[in-house]
């Protein structure tokens, strides 16, 4: 027995070691790793070409002058920033940037590998048990218009047929604008009477839930939902999305879902507030960590870790923000459509440092000249 236990423990230790290696998140840029490399030759560090100013990139101060004390911009007096020679080990394009290992360590830069995982979206919404006399009246109007049309259609008066058809179409459009789906419309026609649950407690009740505009692509008709009420927080009501209103609420920028819920013991009453929980499954997709994305409003960009302190800016195309399970924890991801390949590493922490260095490098290249004799910027430079 003891021998068997020892063997099992050994197997667990080996599996744990393999598992930890398979979950390597990226290159180690921590201060600890930097300290371990202190006494080793560092081939990544490059010599400083000159010092410049983030606000005035035409300023170029030599390393010798910097050591003599010229450490502030002569124009705005901001602290100068070093500009390093290009990395000879890698041909970098205009979107590339190189960061020293010490800067990476100070910024605690972290990276994560792009991989395929199951993505989903969990939405929590405030709902209300429907008290909707307007919709019930619209149902009555439609049923009456349908009854009239069925009678008139058999007559020989074409004008009467057209008028009855127009009234029926108008009543149908009104129901559609109020969020009634085609399936619900057919159920109404089959039932032949308006829905009593819109004004009084019944075995099945309508729940109106509001979701935000950015969540509108997720819910689908037929999705199952869970509903909780403060009347009995321990009990979960089961529901199903029956329809999604076609028009967004202008002021609140929300969309209304219409859910039919099983009303056990008729606990749910009209106008009662409830909490609605919805989970939509996207499925397997390339997952881009939310922290990796810098959203400019017009485009989304990430920095890909190419190794040896080299990073490359990439524009990415993504789907709407979702969730996924990573290392047994729920995290936020974008479904990645284009821009980064599976297996590549993206920066998830410290990307603002890399972005600022990238912009500084681009500005330094754009204003390659030095200050004039009068200490002013070259002609045409404006802020």
Give the arrangement of secondary structure elements.
Elements: H1 2-22, H2 31-36, E1 48-52, H3 63-67, E2 81-84, E3 96-98, H4 101-106, E4 110-113, E5 115-129, H5 133-152, H6 158-177, H7 182-191, E6 204-212, E7 224-229, E8 236-244, E9 254-262, E10 273-289, E11 294-295, E12 300-307, E13 310-318, E14 322-326, E15 329-338, E16 345-349, H8 351-366
Antiparallel strand pairs: 1-2, 3-13, 4-16, 5-6, 5-10, 5-14, 6-9, 7-8, 7-10, 8-9, 10-15, 11-12, 12-13, 12-16, 13-15, 14-15
Helix pairs in contact: 5-6
Tell me about this structure.
The structure is a single chain. The termini are far apart. With 383 residues, the chain is of the alpha+beta class. The strands form two sheets. Strands 3, 4, 5, 6, 7, 8, 9, 10, 11, 12, 13, 14, 15 and 16 form a 14-stranded antiparallel sheet that branches. It has a two-stranded antiparallel ribbon with strand order 1-2. The chain has a domain of 64 residues. Helices cover 27% and strands 31% of the residues. A hairpin with a 6-residue loop joins strand 7 and strand 8. The C terminus is likely disordered.
Which keywords apply here?
single chain; 383 residues; alpha+beta; two-stranded antiparallel sheet; 27% helix; 31% strand; disordered C terminus
What is the tally of helical segments?
8
Q: Helix share of residues?
A: 25-40%
Topology as H/E string?
HHEHEEHEEHHHEEEEEEEEEEEH
Beta fraction of the residues? 25-35%
What is the β-strand count?
16
Low-pLDDT sequence parts: 12-24, 38-44, 363-383
Distance between the termini: 78 Å
The secondary structure category is alpha+beta
Coarse shape: elongated
The radius of gyration over CA amounts to 32 Å
Average of per-residue pLDDT values: 82
Largest sheet: 14 strands, antiparallel
């Amino acid at each position: 027995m003891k021998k068997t236990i020892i063997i099992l423990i050994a197997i667990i230790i080996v599996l744990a070691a393999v598992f930890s290696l398979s979950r390597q998140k990226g290159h180690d840029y921590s201060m600890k790793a930097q300290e371990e490399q202190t006494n080793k030759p560092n081939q990544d560090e490059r010599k400083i070409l000159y010092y410049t100013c983030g606000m005035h990139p035409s300023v170029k101060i030599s390393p010798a002058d910097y050591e003599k004390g010229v450490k502030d911009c002569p124009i705005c007096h901001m602290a100068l920033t070093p500009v390093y020679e290009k990395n000879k080990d890698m041909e970098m394009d205009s979107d590339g940037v190189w960061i020293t290992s010490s800067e990476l360590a100070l910024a605690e830069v972290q990276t994560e590998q792009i991989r395929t995982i199951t993505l989903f979206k969990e939405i929590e919404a405030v709902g209300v048990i429907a008290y909707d006399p307007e919709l019930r009246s619209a149902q009555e109007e439609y049923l009456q218009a349908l009854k009239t049309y069925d009678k008139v259609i058999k007559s020989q008066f074409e004008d009467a047929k057209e008028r009855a058809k127009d009234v029926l179409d108008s009543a149908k459009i009104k129901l559609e604008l109020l969020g009634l789906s085609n399936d619900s419309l057919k159920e109404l026609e089959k039932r032949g009477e308006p829905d009593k649950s819109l004004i009084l407690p019944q075995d099945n009740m309508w729940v109106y839930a509001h979701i935000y505009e950015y969540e509108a692509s997720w819910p689908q008709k037929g999705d199952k939902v869970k509903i909780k009420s403060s009347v009995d927080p321990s009990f979960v009501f089961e529901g199903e999305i029956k329809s999604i209103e076609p028009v967004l609420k202008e002021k609140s920028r929300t969309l209304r879902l219409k859910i039919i819920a099983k009303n056990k013991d008729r606990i749910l009453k009209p106008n009662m507030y409830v909490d609605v929980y919805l989970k939509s499954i996207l499925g397997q997709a390339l997952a881009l960590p939310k922290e990796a994305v810098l959203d400019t409003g017009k485009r989304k960009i990430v920095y890909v870790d190419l190794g040896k302190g080299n990073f490359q800016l990439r524009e990415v195309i993504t789907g709407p923000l979702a969730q996924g399970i990573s290392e047994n924890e729920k995290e936020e991801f974008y479904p990645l459509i284009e821009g980064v390949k599976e297996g590549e590493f993206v920066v998830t922490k410290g990307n603002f440092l890399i972005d600022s260095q990238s912009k500084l490098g681009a500005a330094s290249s754009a204003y390659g000249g030095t200050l004039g004799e009068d200490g002013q910027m070259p002609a045409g430079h404006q802020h």
